[in-house]
Amino acid sequence: MKAGFLLEHNDQLRQLTYLIRAVRQQTRKVFYTQAAKHDLTEAWCLVLGVLHRQAPCALNQLATALHVSNSTASGIVERMCGAGLITKQRLPHNQRQIGISLTNAGKEAYENVERDYWEVLQPLRELPEGKLTQILKDQTMILETLEAINDDQ
């Protein structure tokens, strides 16, 4: 390959990584704003979402879903229990394991944040038909490629 091609290709990859970072920053900003509006943190909103889809949930499952360590997840869970948003109880099928679930207040908080978050993101629905599907495919391919690179390191 010629040096000029490699430089141009590297410039495109640089632009891609910067764009991915910028999109991430903007989506986090929207998410943070909606969470703060309901006196929640981003992490708490993520926990509410995981538990809404999968409860009861063991601590290690929650940590995996959040991409954090068990100790980090444990601290989040303790604070959320103290706020009355979630509850912990022994799982009937495994008495050694604790199941984490939403309380009624947690369900209500989840529904409020979820409603407001998607309302704010409504302009994304104006993307041309089929474009969102293509973006999802492209982003999935990029994610899988980056995961493979990180697995090889």
Task: Explain the overall architecture.
This protein is mostly helical. The protein folds into 2 domains: 118 residues, Winged helix-like DNA-binding domain superfamily/Winged helix DNA-binding domain (Arc Repressor Mutant, subunit A, Orthogonal Bundle), CATH 1.10.10; 27 residues. It contains 6 helices and 3 strands, in the order ααβααββαα. The protein has a 3-stranded antiparallel β-sheet. Helix 2 crosses helix 5. It comes from Loigolactobacillus bifermentans DSM 20003. GO terms for molecular function: DNA-binding transcription factor activity. This is MarR family transcriptional regulator.
User: How much is the average pLDDT?
Assistant: 90
Detail the poorly predicted runs: none
The CATH superfamily of the largest domain is Winged helix-like DNA-binding domain superfamily/Winged helix DNA-binding domain
Main sheet strand line-up: 1-3-2
- DSSP strand tally: 3
| Alpha plus pi helix count | 6
Q: Percent helix among the residues? A: 55-70%
Q: Domains counted in the coordinates: how many? A: 2
Q: Characterize the biggest β-sheet.
A: 3 strands, antiparallel
| Helix-strand topology string | HHEHHEEHH
CATH architecture designation of the largest domain:
Orthogonal Bundle
Structural class by helix and strand composition: mainly alpha
CATH class of the largest domain: Mainly Alpha
Give the N-to-C terminal Cα separation: 25 Å
CATH topology grouping of the largest domain? Arc Repressor Mutant, subunit A
Shape estimate: globular
Rounded to an integer in angstroms, the radius of gyration calculated over CA atoms is: 20 Å
Strand content bin: 5-15%
